[in-house]
Amino acid sequence: MSSKPIVFSAIQPSGNLTIGNYIGTMRHWSKMQSNYECLYCVADLHALTTIQNYSFLKTRTLDALSFYLACGVDPEKSIVFIQSHVHQHSQLSWILNCFARFSELLRMTQFKVKGTQGEKYIPKTNLGLFNYPILMASDILLYQTNVVPVGYDQKQHIELTRTIADRFNSIYGDVFALPTPIINQYGSKIMALLEPKKKMSKSDINKNNVIFLLDDISSVVSKINKSVTDSDRPSAIYYDIKNKPGISNLLEIFSAISNKDVHVLSKELQGVMYTEFKKIVSDAVSKFLHKLQRRYTDYRCDETLLKKIAYEGSMKAQLKAETTLKKIYSELNFFHLFK
Ligand code: TYM
């Protein structure tokens, strides 16, 4: 048995992946492969809560898988799989539903944003959107996960996962490891380009708010050119999320892409005009995306390989998931026909 700590992370293929997904989580994945035992999952069951047209689901799932590989996830080192291929996630989800409280789920910010308008619930909101954090808890707890690299928006869900695990453990002993989120100080909440006080999101209806990983380079340049800065004159480039959200956001994007500290960059960019700064950022992002898209295309063209990787990943994940699920079934004293 491996003694390395266990990492789990996932993205839901509910839309095209964004640079926010990359910076918030995917960029860390390949680096973690040497010191951790890693599981990276495409959370297609989660996508059912928001997706409008299921015919895109398969395409988007394979797109996401190709991006995982293009970002350096190596199926020889990590377990890469599709959530719906490992039935234990749904099985554990039901059990954990019975250990979570309605009031806890009502407090989830993401549900409040997506499932309510002001004080009122949107009548057609599906129940999956409400108990979605329970499925997420199952994803994490099934593998005895120690750390979960995520963006800031998932922090509350990981805290709930810990609460549920702790509650279960307090009754049945140490069944689950308690996971800790890894949330970087910079880059864990990339903001919308035109509205830098709101998060960049796959589902934004204004596409100029979002840099998609599959955007063509000319549109990336145009989106960054249009991005909101501020009215400070002369131009002043430094990190101040409260008073300069647009500039700080561009700095966080640039920092993640160039692997340079935000404050080092601020110093280097002293005296640079905003138009020139945008050009520097868009050059760096374009170069980065160009390379990433080339690697992505190589994988995306080979569906046979993608299916093989997903199949092998699901077999490995199922073995691990079954070990935890068996332990839980036995603690809960379910009746079994076969020993
Ligand atoms: P999702 O698909 O919304 O986002 C995937 C990951 O990307 C991060 N992220 C961002 N980070 C920085 N800036 C942004 N603008 C930004 N937008 C998204 C998210 O924080 C996340 O880390 N429920 C999850 C998927 C999931 C999961 C899990 C994650 C399912 N099971 C278990 C971790 C562990 C979700 O919808 O993420």
Give the overall silhouette: globular
Q: Which quaternary structure do these chains form? A: single chain
Total strands: 7
DSSP helix count?
Answer: 13
Summary?
By secondary structure, the protein is mainly α.
Question: What does this protein structure show overall?
Answer:
- The structure is a single chain.
- By secondary structure, the protein is mainly alpha-helical.
- It has two domains: 6-188 and 303-331, 3-Layer(aba) Sandwich (Rossmann fold), CATH 3.40.50.620; 207-297, Tyrosyl-Transfer RNA Synthetase.
- It is built from 13 helices and seven strands.
- The chain has helices spanning 19-32, 44-47, 57-70, 88-97, 102-106, 109-115, 127-141, 155-172, 217-226, 245-258, 262-268, 274-300, 303-332; strands at residues 6-11, 37-42, 79-82, 116-117, 120-121, 147-149, 180-182.
- Strands 1-2-3 form a three-stranded parallel β-sheet.
- Helix 8 links the parallel strand 6 (147-149) and strand 7.
- The longest helix is centred in the C-terminal third of the chain and has 30 residues, at 303-332.
- The radius of gyration is 21 Å and the shape is globular.
- The chain starts with 5 loop residues before the first strand and ends in a 7-residue tail after the last helix.
- Bound molecules: tryptophanyl-5'AMP.
- The site of tryptophanyl-5'AMP (TYM) has 25 residues, from strand 1, helix 1 and helix 7.
